[in-house]
Amino acid sequence: MPNLKKLTPVAWTQVDVDDAFWNPRIHANRTVTLPLEYALNKKNGVLDAYQWDWWDLAKSKPPWHIWVGDLGKWIEAASYSLAKHPDAAVATQMDDVISRIIKGQKEDGYIYPNPLPKSWRWANLVSWHEFYEVGHDIEGAVAHYQATGQRHFLDAVCRCADLMEANFGTEPGKKRGYDGHPEIELAMMKLYRATGEPRYLKLAKFFVDERRREPNYFALEAQAATRAGVPLTTWDGKPGDYHYYQAHKPLRQQEQAVGHAVRALYLYSGAVDVAVETGDGELLATCRRLWKNLTRRRMYVIGGVGSSQHGEAFTFDYDLPNETAYAETCANIALVFLAHRLLQVDADGEYADVMERAIYNGVLSGISLDGRRFFYANHLAAFPASGSDKFDAVATSRREWFGCACCPPNIARLIASIGQYAYSTSATGLYVHLYMGGSVHAQIAGQTVTVRQQTQYPWKETVRLSVDPQTPATFDLLLRIPGWCRRATLKVNGKAVALKNITRKSYARIHRQWSQGDQVELTLSMLVQRIEANPNVRMDCGKVALQRGPVVYCLEEIDNGKNLADLALPRQAKLSAAFDKKLSATVITAKALRRQPAGWGDTLYRPAQSATHPAALRAVPYCLWNNRGDGEMLVWIRQP
Amino acid sequence: MPNLKKLTPVAWTQVDVDDAFWNPRIHANRTVTLPLEYALNKKNGVLDAYQWDWWDLAKSKPPWHIWVGDLGKWIEAASYSLAKHPDAAVATQMDDVISRIIKGQKEDGYIYPNPLPKSWRWANLVSWHEFYEVGHDIEGAVAHYQATGQRHFLDAVCRCADLMEANFGTEPGKKRGYDGHPEIELAMMKLYRATGEPRYLKLAKFFVDERRREPNYFALEAQAATRAGVPLTTWDGKPGDYHYYQAHKPLRQQEQAVGHAVRALYLYSGAVDVAVETGDGELLATCRRLWKNLTRRRMYVIGGVGSSQHGEAFTFDYDLPNETAYAETCANIALVFLAHRLLQVDADGEYADVMERAIYNGVLSGISLDGRRFFYANHLAAFPASGSDKFDAVATSRREWFGCACCPPNIARLIASIGQYAYSTSATGLYVHLYMGGSVHAQIAGQTVTVRQQTQYPWKETVRLSVDPQTPATFDLLLRIPGWCRRATLKVNGKAVALKNITRKSYARIHRQWSQGDQVELTLSMLVQRIEANPNVRMDCGKVALQRGPVVYCLEEIDNGKNLADLALPRQAKLSAAFDKKLSATVITAKALRRQPAGWGDTLYRPAQSATHPAALRAVPYCLWNNRGDGEMLVWIRQP
User: Fold this and answer.
1) pLDDT exceeds cutoff 70 at A482
2) Nearest Cα to B521, choosing from B483, B485, B586, B477?
């Protein structure tokens, strides 16, 4: 079997993150977000519902099936968090959640917190999320096992996976179904990797390959459900358009990222895993093709994807509206998952660039600094007067929770395991993808090598790494030179090293014999940059976004007054960056222009005559917006 | 009773229009649009349905109630057209339509082409459009009477009006209802003016005043309908939000133009009529207040209103999105109706400016040059790749017809009677509001005075008027100096007259003794103007619209290539206007700039570095767009 994978991520258990940027976020996550999620999961009835034998509408309304995957994500987040930062209360909650799920598992292994009549089981895969839910339980169980070494939850989800494997596949008598909401594919691959059980790999591959084979399973399922009286629901009340589910044609024939963005990216992520573990170059080529389409034509500058609220979906190439941007937090997180997987395959900084862009912008914007409030959609322009704030999913102010609360636990698990995205090992050494203070223990050259990072990334330009092999050894240290960086310099033990000849695919390879205490200093120039979008992005013509390091900036009303759309940043205006202690972030200032809003009276249109007046412009990191009250926000600024 | 009205419009029967701009439109209207509408009304079953005694679903599906007002508008258009341009075929069709309506009228006078069970009559006023339909029949009957002198149709609608008056009002035993779709108010006022019957005035006033008095009639109606088993439908499936119907509070308390735009403007138009005929200054103040809100904060530069497709409605102040602009043709026509009414009240050019803006832009854009295809929504930017062309109501190419075909007959009646908007008489003379070739016969100073206009308006600057009183007489000729005009000059019998001292409220008053053959020449400078929008219109910041005379311009893909959003028109670029014979219109050219679209490869974002290259810009009148094939269109052009 061909080896399609150049890198192996260093497991989250081997990475510690400890720096001024991440510490408050990790802290808020475990002291606010995790307990909040537990409380709300309890309140909305999901925890109790696991104990039900059956739907019993006389007793209570079953919890919305969409709520259920949140629990698995919560266990996953809690597992990551507790392993690094023990907390008795959260540990008790985690044990409670796991014991309820296990207690509620049916005798044959079936897990679903919304216990259907047995005849309804797997009868509406297109929209009941049965596998999606199990997938998140599996991800939670794998993390729990990695965190605690305890097998009881892992064993439980294995029994469920075994049941699924016994019932789904190409063998005679098995169902040829797959879930309307992909997720089980990547979860099953995690379970395979955790247990080594090849049946889980086989099942994941089946789910990927079977999707929209003819005859169309979803169409057959709909016919059977109608005959059997199973209540069928589809997202838009209309059957027949399978783009939403990425089931319009077999994955290998798909050319563009279409449909519900989270589903799409979970599917592609699972497909990369399957391709890598089965040596399937064709499937990998499919994933790379879809990656190109989505990152080169359908991605916001904040690393957000899925531009339309309608179907939470991709629309068409270069269609990236700003005020109505959806860019769901979950989709942006899923973009991190996919980028991380393809990065391992190709060891190409292109993937790390997108991963970093998403993390520092469209993902972190999804949670407030205090960890208490969340964005579901991540607009690139906010105009509260539009009234979209009335609707949680497209709000212009973060919310404590959502009817469908997929995003909060998703961001919780990402923050709790952020270190896992930072490092990989290759055959010859250690890759550093992301710069964050802390340390990694990696197996390199037959021993455990510890590398410590000291940095004030993403605000400061310098990253210091100390490399500590147990005994001197020759290996590579590969440092990512980010795509946004126009000028980088490197020193090894104080001595300058020219980057040009050692850099390939955005990684600078330092090949040498390393001894304890070796010091590496990388300086990544962080000049403020004006970014322009491809001319086909009609919304951004004549506009620039500001970026410094990996951080994309925005204007907020609190700094710049109302009517941000009328601010213009002249081409020649100097952009200054300075660290703002109150905000704990670097902010950008410039001399901009705006029309005099006074003097118009009640005039709506008039012959163009307005002079522009100097106006101080202050831009803050996009991910920090709406932490200082509500108001307008704008990413793309007019550049006259 | 105070006289609240300074002017009286000269009746359409006394005006002839004959010039190079209007002739082809009037011609297309009568040779294409009218027969097409007749054929389609016949085909969709409306004509037959008048003969039904009853809903009989076994026989056939009743025509959609929304279709029905179209027939009244068609009669109105046909009446105007036939009086000026006899056509035997259309005359036969008109007789056919009228005879079917009369034949279908119930014994008690009830007219509705979708004959409800008698117990359902007036039981769902909020959404069945019963009065709206009758209103259009009344408007048709009045026009037919004015055109032919025949009373049979007028008498029929009077019987229906009598029935309504006997059943609706504040007297004990009468219903206190009003229609969900205003229109009957202005129609009843037309009937009052045509017949002199004061009960019609009383009923119109009742409908205006009663709207959303407490108790809320629509709420009571819904309760009663539910009890009686009358099927209730509301536009959005939700009861309770009465803004859509302008029934959220009594009209006199309304501060902003809200809800369905056509309904709003029909209601306000009817209210102006009632106010004027009853000397009701408070009601007039309400209408002026709503006028100000809608024209100073909620109107597109094309004279279009109702910016959202959702509810075909107004949204909020300064919310005027371009690509998703709704600006329904009917709403823009209704804006002409309202402007025309308020113009008579105040004799202020402000109203004529809006009326003219709507006519030459957002109204005429609704019909193709050949009269065969129509826009329902009038976008201010078209991007066909968005796929909105799949939906008739928001199409980016004109359609032959619509499921709800309110707009085509509305524009047909406007074009057929365009002359009625051009002139008014005051106590002292003749007002000329609109410049168009042709003649008017007006009663001034105790005699019929004929004024002839010769002009190539809106393309050429000069308007020549010859004033022909039967005998020499002293009176005023008041010529509108349009708001868009920066420099006007006037000559009377070849002698220059200074405008400054004789111009008030945008009308130049020429007071003198007129004799047959007197010549007036008005020259209205038509420099191309860049128009800017109020800074609060966030969509138009940094952009300009081009306007010359009353005509607003746009860019089309056929002239300027794809990706119009990337074109920029520098502040200092010279704008040249020249008449294009092929298009029969003045076009504007300039040297613009655009980024090189090549060289981007698959890059989506990059540090701003693009140079701009010269690009020829060619703008055509907005009302003419989409007459030369489909493609992008743009009104607001970036001005760096």
Assistant:
1) yes
2) B477
- Taking the CA of residue B211 and the nearest CA in chain A, the distance in Å comes to 27
Q: Is the pLDDT of residue A117 over 80?
A: no
Catalytic residue among B158, B287, B330, B406: B406
Q: Mind telling me the catalytic residues of A?
A: 312, 406
Residues 494 through 533 of chain B touching chain A, CB cutoff 8 Å: 529-533
Q: Which amino acid, one-letter code, is at A615?
A: A
Q: Where are the domains of chain B?
A: 8-421, 423-524, 528-638
**CA–CA–CA angle A131, A132, A138 (5° rounding):** 85
Residues A132-189 pLDDT 10s: 999 999 999 999 999 999 999 999 999 999 999 999 999 999 999 999 999 999 999 9
Q: Which two tokens stand for residue B408?
A: 């085509």
Give the Cα separation of B536 and B379 in Å (integer): 20
Pick the residue with more confidence: B512 or A39? Answer: B512
CA gap B213, B564 in Å, rounded: 50
ipTM value for the complex: 0.96
Mean pLDDT of chain A: 95
Joined tokens for residue A297: 């034509």
Tokens for A129?
């999320």
- With a CB-CB cutoff of 8 Å, which residues 539-558 of chain A face chain B? 539, 541-542, 544-545
pTM of the model: 0.95
Task: Identify whether the C-beta of residue B543 lies closer than 8 Å to the C-beta of residue B564.
Answer: no
Instruction: Judge contact between B638 and B567, C-beta under 8 A.
Output: yes
Alpha helices in B417-529 (DSSP H): none
User: Measured between CB atoms, which of B297, B535, B610 is closest to A563?
Assistant: B535
Which tokens is B476 given? Answer: 């005023």
* Helix extents (H) in B184-312: 184-195, 198-210, 217-228, 261-278, 281-297
pLDDT above 70: residue A60: no
Phi, psi (rounded to 5 degrees) for A308: -115, 135
Residue of chain B whose alpha carbon sits nearest to that of A568: B542
Tell me the backbone φ, ψ of residue B475, rounded to 5 degrees. -160, 175
Closest by CA to A539, choosing from A322, A215, A281, is A322
Residues B343 and B424: beta-carbon distance below 8 Å: yes
In CATH, B423-524 is 2.40.160: no
Q: By the CB < 8 Å criterion, does A534 face chain B?
A: yes
Q: Going by C-beta distance under 8 Å and a sequence separation of 6 or more, which residues neighbour residue A331?
A: A261, A262, A265, A304, A305, A306, A312
Chain A CB contacts of B604 under 8 Å are 295-297, 299, 533-534, 537
Q: Is the confidence at residue B241, as pLDDT, over 90?
A: no
Residue spans of alpha helices (H) in A231-308: 261-278, 281-297
Position B277, amino acid: E
Average pLDDT, chain B: 95
Give the minimum alpha-carbon distance from A289 to chain B in angstroms, rounded to a whole number: 12
The structure tokens listed for B266 are 């029909």
> pLDDT by residue (tens digit) across B8-61?
999 999 999 999 999 999 999 999 999 998 988 888 888 888 877 666 656 666
Residues of chain A neighbouring B534 (CB-CB closer than 8 A)? 600, 603-605
A8-421, what's its fold? Glycosyltransferase (1.50.10)
CA gap A615, A634 in Å, rounded: 16
For B577, residues 6+ apart whose C-beta sits below 8 A from its C-beta are B526, B528, B548, B586, B587, B588
DSSP A309: T
The arithmetic mean of pLDDT across residues A353-368, rounded, is: 98
B470 exposure class (CB count in 10 Å sphere: 0-12, 13-18, 19+): exposed
In this predicted model, what pLDDT tens digit does every residue of A194-238 receive, in sequence order? 999 999 999 999 999 999 999 999 999 999 999 998 888 777 777
Q: Is the pLDDT of residue B101 over 70?
A: yes
**Residue A637 in 3-state DSSP?**
strand
